[in-house]
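yo, Hsp20/alpha crystallin family protein is done. seq:
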Amino acid sequence: MWSQACDLIEQAERMHRQFFRAVATQPAEVVWEPPADVFEDEREVVVVLAMPGVRPERMEVRSEGGTLLVRGVRPLPLAGSGLRVRHLEIPYGRFERRIALPSRGLQLQEPEVADGCVILRLRKNDGGAR
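structure:
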């Protein structure tokens, strides 16, 4: 039974690291990396980032030589309310995610928010060539 409990804890920690990896962009700055899915058809590339609590105006989105860069800040909710933090699992603070784009010649559209996700649509300018 103890072995099973240890295995479950190890599995939970592995999943947590997989979805909320901390990455360093500068030596003293630690950020979290939101999980992302990427979809593509002949007209567009769609990137879906799981970021509940983050509005598009709180993030910077830009394309850098075949890479999509998304960064910003997810504020701690209820900050200043006088409540003490007892337990935190949701990552807060600075985040950054770099996603290799499968195509070049993409035009970023206005970000959308749906069901706790930020949806980034990149329209293909080249007729779908890869």
